[in-house]
């Protein structure tokens, strides 16, 4: 079993500490700042209280993600488990980025000059998160293993 202790310290710190905090911001937006959750990425949109269930579904998912990222990465050192969690979150990040793109496109705001501070914040958080997850899954920054005379050795 490959151990997460072989993962670079950056990944271990990020996944155990920062990732849960980022997810908790999603909890805050969806449970307590629903209007901001709507108008941030879609300035011409209006919050509809009849759709509050959508916010609680999203907030509940963000809460589950915060718990999973905090608990799983602390309860196991199995790198396969860490990669499975990060791959699942990568899928969610890609869906979010597609959603941001479609939202900007629908609003004719694809040009960076048309972006609001909220747009920059969304993209400025999702893009690095997505790249960090992808880099982890692809072993970027991990010690290289080379086969020398049939034996694997760390370089």
TrEMBL record:
Q: Does the keyword Transmembrane helix apply?
A: yes
- Ranges that cross the membrane: 52-72, 84-103, 123-142
**Listed InterPro entries:** DUF7704
Q: Which organism is it from?
A: Clonostachys rhizophaga
Q: Which UniProt keywords apply?
A: Membrane, Transmembrane, Transmembrane helix
Protein name (record): DUF7704 domain-containing protein
Give yes or no: UniProt keyword Membrane: yes
Q: Where is the DUF7704 domain?
A: 5-140
């Amino acid at each position: 079993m490959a151990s997460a202790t072989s993962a670079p310290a950056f990944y271990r710190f990020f996944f155990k500490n920062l990732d849960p905090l980022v997810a908790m911001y999603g909890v805050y937006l969806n449970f307590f700042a629903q209007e901001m959750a709507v108008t941030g990425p879609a300035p011409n949109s209006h919050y509809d209280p009849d759709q509050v269930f959508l916010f609680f579904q999203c907030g509940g998912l963000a809460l589950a993600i915060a718990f999973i990222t905090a608990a799983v990465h602390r309860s196991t050192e199995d790198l396969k488990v860490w990669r499975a969690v990060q791959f699942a979150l990568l899928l969610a990040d890609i869906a979010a980025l597609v959603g941001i793109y479609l939202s900007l496109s629908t609003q004719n705001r694809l040009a960076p000059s048309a972006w609001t501070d909220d747009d920059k914040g969304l993209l400025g958080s999702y893009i690095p998160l997505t790249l960090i997850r992808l880099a982890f899954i692809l072993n970027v920054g991990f010690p290289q293993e080379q086969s020398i005379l049939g034996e694997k050795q760390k370089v």
